[in-house]
What we know:
By secondary structure, the protein is an all-beta fold. The chain has no helices and 11 strands.
Amino acid sequence: xxxxxxxxxxxxxxxxxxxxSCAASGRTVAGSALGWFRQAPGKERDIVAAxxxxxxxxxxADSVKGRFTISRDNGQNVMYLQMNSLKPEDTAxxxxxxxxxxxxxxxxxDTVDEYDYWGQGTQVTVSS
Length: 128
């Protein structure tokens, strides 16, 4: 089992920045693909960004390309999402996720069904 805990959310004005962190415990996620998703009220949970097991391949939703950057520190068992030029439409609960199905291969993955473990989420609110 792996536990994921997100942090770094909050209230920010449009154009501002936030850095989300996802800390894993219980086992290492160094060999697993990771992803950030978000869910706004009344909407489905959608991919924001994903990263493969060694950080060499990434995926971004079109809506965040050029503004958000995903990264990981396998030595610290942590993943990050740097969010710049935030917009009100970025307002959502942000979740991190990882897989239990394969190690040291594969990814990034961009759908909810590809992930097995999820954090509780952190709220990001962008005011106009």
